[in-house]
């Protein structure tokens, strides 16, 4: 029972922490809101994967995950950057951006990074929560 209660907060913490550290490594800084957004995205990708992994190939899960991440990034950017004026990020100079909050190059990046998220979520569930060993279908 304890394992089931602690699963989502654990996965949220791992996803948020990993994303926050990635931002520090590649941008040199981050904002606490990015840990929250990263945690939410990681949990949603994991729930999508847990529910549909046997029905859809990995590339389809990656496409859906990129859509989830991009959608949440837009909503978060609209709230934090546009409405609250926090200026956490600005893709205004990046080609194919929407209001400076999302852009095509990063959506493509989320597509490829989501594979890492899917695999990490699967193995964390396998190692810590005794769920089924991951198996992947490409087509």
How is this structure best summarized?
The chain has 139 residues and is mainly α. 71% of the residues lie in helices and 3% in strands. A two-stranded antiparallel ribbon has the order 1-2.
Q: Strand content of the residues, in percent?
A: under 5%
**CA-based shape:** globular
Give the helix level as a range of percent: over 70%
Q: Describe the biggest sheet?
A: 2 strands, antiparallel
Structural class: mainly alpha
- Structural Rg: 16 Å
Pfam family, one: ABC_trans_CmpB
InterPro entries: CmpB_TMEM229
Protein name: ABC-transporter type IV
Transmembrane segments: 7-26, 32-50, 62-86, 98-120
Description of the molecule:
The chain crosses the membrane at residues 7-26, 32-50, 62-86, 98-120. This is ABC-transporter type IV. With 139 residues, this protein is mainly alpha-helical. The chain contains 4 helices and 2 strands. The protein has helices at 2-27, 32-52, 58-83, 104-129; strands at 97-98, 102-103. It has a two-stranded antiparallel sheet. A hairpin with a 3-residue loop joins strand 1 and strand 2. Helix 2 (32-52) packs antiparallel against helix 3 (58-83). The longest helix has 26 residues, at 2-27. It is globular. It starts with a helix and ends in a 10-residue tail after the last helix. The mean pLDDT is 94.
